[in-house]
Amino acid sequence: MTDTARGSSRRYGTRPTMKDVAARAGVGLKTVSRVVNGEPGVTPDTERRVQEAITALGFRRNDSARILRKGRTASIGLVLEDLADPFYGPLSRAVEEVARHHGALLINGSSAEDPAREQELVLALCARRVDGLVVIPAGDDHRYLAPEIAAGVATVFVDRPAGRIEADTVLSDSFGGSRDAVAHLIAHGHRRIGFIGDQPRIHTAKERLRGYRTAMAAAGLPVDDAWVSLGTTEPERVHTAARAMLDAPEPVTALFAGNNRVTVTLVRVLRQRTAPVALVGFDDFELADLVSPAVTVVAQDAARMGRTAAGLLFRRLEGADEPPRREEIPTRLIARGSGEIRPARG
Amino acid sequence: MTDTARGSSRRYGTRPTMKDVAARAGVGLKTVSRVVNGEPGVTPDTERRVQEAITALGFRRNDSARILRKGRTASIGLVLEDLADPFYGPLSRAVEEVARHHGALLINGSSAEDPAREQELVLALCARRVDGLVVIPAGDDHRYLAPEIAAGVATVFVDRPAGRIEADTVLSDSFGGSRDAVAHLIAHGHRRIGFIGDQPRIHTAKERLRGYRTAMAAAGLPVDDAWVSLGTTEPERVHTAARAMLDAPEPVTALFAGNNRVTVTLVRVLRQRTAPVALVGFDDFELADLVSPAVTVVAQDAARMGRTAAGLLFRRLEGADEPPRREEIPTRLIARGSGEIRPARG
């Protein structure tokens, strides 16, 4: 493109608009709006094209009027529950991307799984006048947030639902994904399947346990109490739980791990044993395809969860006045080897 | 300690914390959290002791009284450069732990490797009146921070040094670690060694390149320009760079990766090739010991970097008045297999 041509398509002082992005990407305006707002219904390929057009044109949502009016930089807060869990990397990055398209800064904090800390952090962010909050809750009572929401702080919960208040929520299909994972193990001949999950007060841990029990019941299989272990994801706890199930007189022949922290520990546990044990993990993780055997997982789309949550948040910030929505993001079973190991005869 | 002594030594963060309550009541933090949040699982006697400690210390669960009185909760900001790089997980968590011990909240943000974004974020955090900042810089000119530092915002730089201002800094020994890594490959018989690193404007990338060149020179080995490739850590870029080095008429027989993002991509690249190629990566990463061959790395102590940085920050917040310090955290070569592969004859 010549300078003149560029000059005519982008006159001095004009900023690229969503229309420019749509034209360059060869898609409709609504599609650009969906991508910018992190709404569902866009194929990955289309989204990539739109993102490329956004980058090429230097497109930014024009929120400056709003920022000037308020006298400060727009910002949203993201409350995580564990800074070291890689599940939150792509989720955080997706929220940040959407925030950036809206000209807003993202400020994170971590509750470190402590409900009191979550509350302290949320209120501190509100006191710093964030425009909205994306919360991965540690606690199960969020009535403390009601005055803030009433005062106009848009709030979206991700990964786990809000407790005792109504709010926009984005969840993975923990129940369906877990049921599919366990059905997959059953289809490969397993009858004694162990479940090692997160603490039972956590919504996703409960849902994944329910998926496990439902799949077992659907296949007419009993569940021995000794096959279920919920608790922290500390490696030592997971090690002990796995050993108890694997060294029992009638050992489990397969394990279903309730999240990626548990799965990674189980990969280490199983590598030290001679008899092969099948393994399916909830959550994908980096290099799951490169360890041996490669790990079969129920993959969550963490980036899509983040995008969807941020999209709902900015809808609220732009004035959407509608009842709280609950979006459920599907999971996907990825068979890589560890989940297709058949039980030894007997 | 008398109240007066406490007042003078702790002008920062004087509010009693849950930890103080736990210590006084002789119970764990979790128990205090349960009592404060009205959760079950606490005996009446324990609850009474916790309540007495709360009263004696004047602990307030609800921050609003204190926020009104003091204007804010003690907090420090942490500016990362990439939310999805797992190197920052343990670093963030360590900073958070230290902050918590000081009764302060940690607020994170990410520059996404954009110097303008870094500045915007840092100033937004200052406008929100954080007490101090830990910064992993994306840019190399931090004069914009000088007025904030003069106004009392303690600031520590981690992983990369500050540009054009003096400030406390915590770095890994990028130079020494890289020199050792390349010397290790040379000791295993390699003469043609490729280096794929991060963008050359980044301090650590430059230091690691310097380590590579120093080790090669010390062994009397020439460095072909085609063996050095600096740029983004995008998988596609790394793929292309690696292919060019490995498919050359005189291919490299070993690769040194400048950070964990590069290493993970190289593990994938090398797995698709038949001829074994040696690999050492700068940065350890989860599961590096479980892929095949296990990956030899120069491990950085990210948690120690975070702890050290936060320690320096709170020294400043507590009134330390001394010239800026520069701490260098040693690295450690961990031989696991990939770095001990010898070159094919010829």
TrEMBL record, chains A, B:
Entry-linked SUPFAM superfamilies: lambda repressor-like DNA-binding domains, Periplasmic binding protein-like I
SMART domains on file: HTH_LACI
InterPro entries: HTH_LacI, LacI/GalR-like_sensor, Lambda_DNA-bd_dom_sf, Peripla_BP_I
Keywords, sorted A to Z: DNA-binding, Transcription, Transcription regulation
Domain spans labelled HTH lacI-type: 16-70
Listed GO MF terms: DNA binding
UniProt-listed PANTHER family: HTH-TYPE TRANSCRIPTIONAL REGULATOR GALS, LACI-RELATED TRANSCRIPTIONAL REPRESSOR
Protein name per UniProt: LacI family DNA-binding transcriptional regulator
